[in-house]
Design brief:
The longest helix is centred in the first third of the chain and has 12 residues, at 65-76. The chain has one domain (5-215): Pseudouridine synthase. It has helices at 34-38, 65-76, 153-160, 209-215; strands at residues 5-8, 12-17, 46-47, 56-62, 81-89, 96-100, 103-105, 113-115, 120-124, 127-136, 139-146, 186-194, 200-204. The strands form two sheets. Strands 1, 2, 3, 4, 5, 6, 10, 11, 12 and 13 form a ten-stranded mixed sheet that branches. Strands 8-7-9 form a three-stranded antiparallel sheet. The radius of gyration is 17 Å and the shape is globular. It is of the alpha+beta class and 219 residues long. It contains four helices and 13 strands. β12 (186-194) and β13 (200-204) form a beta hairpin.
């Protein structure tokens, strides 16, 4: 599998992660991962942050431990700016909004997280901003900016809003996938961070073709 490199310097790699590939191994799967694909060329490569298996878009990797710590601290201090696009079920009423709801674990399914009533375990602060880009029949196209980086955060918060991401088998299993879309409708569009020279770098990934065709079907 060929994966596009969107930005590279002597310490940092930013890739365009395809939907359907794990970032690193998990105990349930023996599939090839992002780490497997790049570790031969970059033997000291470390994962800085995760994208879910079925989420596509910009992802940062560190070529050495020092850079990993440097980038990790930017994520922890919330200095990294991330922008996603998502297609969600239903028509979102407000043109923009902020979801400020801690996330815990689902009592019913160990794979799932939950915001609001019924969540179990440690409740971790989670904040997500969104704005409507376009309303479609039965769906809404959103720009989403997570301010924290919890597991499944965007998917959980949009589910909490009653507008889960389309084609999400974990958080939106009962709604059919729209015609022409066979993957989770969540894409990491851009990321902004500082490199080791202190320069602000913004890396962008093109909107997936299937998203464009759904949002603008006649262009």
């Amino acid at each position: 599998m060929k994966i596009n490199i969107l930005y590279e310097d002597s310490n940092i790699l930013a890739i365009d992660k395809p939907s359907g590939i794990l970032v690193h191994p998990d105990k349930w799967s023996k599939e090839k991962t992002i780490l497997d694909l790049f570790i031969k060329k970059y033997p000291k490569l470390e994962i800085v942050h995760r994208l879910d298996k079925d989420t596509s878009g910009v992802m940062l990797l560190a070529k050495n431990k020092k850079t990993h710590e440097f980038l990790k601290s930017q994520f922890q201090n919330r200095d990294v700016k991330k922008i996603y696009v998502a297609i969600v079920s239903g028509s979102v009423n407000n043109d923009r909004g902020v979801i400020n709801k801690p996330i815990g674990r689902s009592p019913k399914d160990f794979r799932r997280r939950l915001a609001g009533r019924g969540a179990r375990g440690e409740m971790r602060e989670a904040v997500t901003e969104y704005r409507v880009l376009k309303r479609l029949k039965n769906f809404t196209y959103l720009e989403v900016r997570p301010k924290t980086g919890r597991t499944h955060q965007i998917r959980v918060h949009l589910k909490y809003l009653n507008h889960p991401v389309v084609c999400d088998s974990l958080y939106n299993p009962d709604n059919p996938c729209p015609k022409g879309l066979k993957r989770l409708a969540l894409h990491a569009k851009s990321i902004e961070f500082k490199n080791l020279k202190g320069e602000i770098i913004k890396v962008e990934s093109s909107i997936p073709k299937e998203f464009k065709e759904m949002v603008n079907p006649h262009t």
